[in-house]
Specification:
Rossmann fold, about 425 residues, 16 helices, Dihydrodipicolinate Reductase, domain 2, 3 domains, six-stranded parallel sheet, nine-stranded mixed sheet, alpha/beta
Length: about 425
């Protein structure tokens, strides 16, 4: 007998939750969207149109939804970082399982509040560490599980955040101040990489971390001579500026459209003229990048020691020409190295035969679906994550990528303690998780 589809309610109808909910469009026999909660009426109306919802299935807040009798199996929570715990706790207490966007908390106190709530009520909570589901990282993890390179001695991760991503997210945008979004840049942007680090070393706890970083670029002291306050209003150097709002958002109107044009979402198809006027007036994305109110770092490096003596590094650099995520695992019998942007990696082993030093095998994961977006963003991880969430709630076997709330604790602890290390200029211990 065919299983019934899992029913879910969207909480926070933003870009990420709508991306995950899109799985229901591709597989309505597996997932059905039966409700929405969002403070913005336009977004509630959008979801209602997309999924045929009645007014009785639409709510302004998570708290309002939690006060009603449970009306679905699960919640897809895509609220902003600082809202994750506040919106999740009442819904977990109401008995919902949950697919929760990362980072699932913005500090350790919140983290333990959510973990203890989940432990008390027995909810199934999966964190949206979508890179675990990208074929690139899933294949590498399977090689590690299979013992392909022996024991891991050292992990090297790098994340290069492109100049346009840095500007839209962490200088002009929603994640540019910790007191506004709740997260540091390391937690907001590299939470994926910290999770991958602890995942590759699964079963081996991180014990201490040291970190350094700062905002070198996007500050008032670095402002080019003659720069104005808004790119399209009073800036004579705008035509030659690499961070011109016109170049970033008018020449590329679709690249970051969900964020840049959210103030125009009441207009179904805003014109170029309306977009330009927006950047000239109240739109925060029209500001000079050197005159914003950002306080997060633009680069940060961390070094981690694990309980078995192995080490790991992560270098996050914002404002690069090319976006990149790379990984290099060095083990006792071999190594794995690759770049997710290329969708391939190499495996090297010792070769002690005369005239040789090592062997190298290339694993190419250029899957058509990942190129076309059939499996969503993040290297094809987005919708594979949702598929695994559905399978988990149905009681089917978990994939190797499956990440429960408990699985995600060490990655978050690493981030919180790395930021502490950077701020206090000292090596910081990481507590054991029980």
């Amino acid at each position: 007998m065919a299983k019934k589809p899992i029913t879910a309610i969207i909480v926070g109808a933003g870009h990420r939750s709508l991306s995950y909910a899109g799985y229901a469009k591709h597989h309505p026999d597996e997932l059905q969207i039966v409700g929405v909660a969002d403070l913005i009426p336009l977004r509630r109306e959008l979801v209602a149109r997309l999924y045929g919802l009645s007014p009785e299935q639409c709510f302004a807040t998570a708290e309002e939804l939690a006060q009603r009798p449970r009306m679905a199996d699960a919640i897809i929570n895509g609220t902003m970082d600082h809202q994750h715990v506040a919106t999740s706790v009442p819904l977990l207490e109401a008995g919902y399982d949950m697919l929760l966007e990362k980072p699932f908390a913005t500090n350790e106190e919140e983290m333990w509040q959510l973990v203890n709530t989940c432990r008390k009520h027995g909810n199934k909570v999966m964190i949206c560490h979508v890179l675990r589901y990208a074929p690139f990282y899933a294949a590498i993890r399977q090689k590690v599980i299979d013992g392909e390179i022996g024991e891991i001695i050292n992990c090297q991760f790098a994340e290069h955040v492109s100049y346009h991503h840095m500007a839209v997210g962490y200088v002009r945008g929603k994640w540019n101040r910790k007191d506004r979004c709740g997260s540091s840049m390391l937690i907001a942007k590299s939470c994926h990489d910290l999770d991958l680090m602890t995942w590759m070393k699964s079963g081996i706890e991180p014990v201490r971390v040291s970190s350094f970083g700062s905002n070198m670029q996007f500050r008032l002291e670095k402002i080019p001579k003659g720069a104005g306050t808004r790119c399209l209003v009073d800036c004579p150097i705008e035509p030659g500026c690499l961070y011109s709002a016109y170049k970033h958002y008018i020449n590329h109107p679709s690249r970051w459209s969900f964020y840049v044009w959210d103030t125009l979402e009441h207009i179904s198809n805003p014109t170029i003229e309306q977009k330009v006027e927006s950047l000239k007036t109240t739109n925060p994305y029209g500001r000079c990048v050197w005159r914003c109110d950002n306080d997060v770092v633009d680069h940060q490096s961390i070094v981690v020691e694990f309980s078995d003596g192995s080490t790991s590094t992560l270098n996050m650099i914002g404002g690069t020409s090319k976006p990149l995520r790379s990984i290099h695992l060095l083990g006792t019998t071999g190594e794995i190295q690759g770049v997710i942007n290329d969708s391939k990696f190499v495996i090297r082993h010792f070769d002690t035969s005369p005239g040789h030093e090592y062997t190298e095998e290339e694993v190419d994961l250029n899957i058509q679906g990942d190129k076309t977006g059939a499996f969503g963003g993040h290297g094809g991880g987005d919708l594979r994550l949702v598929a695994d969430f559905v399978q988990t709630l149905r009681g089917e076997p978990r994939s190797i990528s499956c990440t429960s709330l408990e699985d995600s604790v060490y990655g978050h602890l690493l981030g919180f303690r790395a930021d502490q290390s950077m701020q206090e200029h000292k090596v910081v211990e990481i507590p054991a998780v029980h």
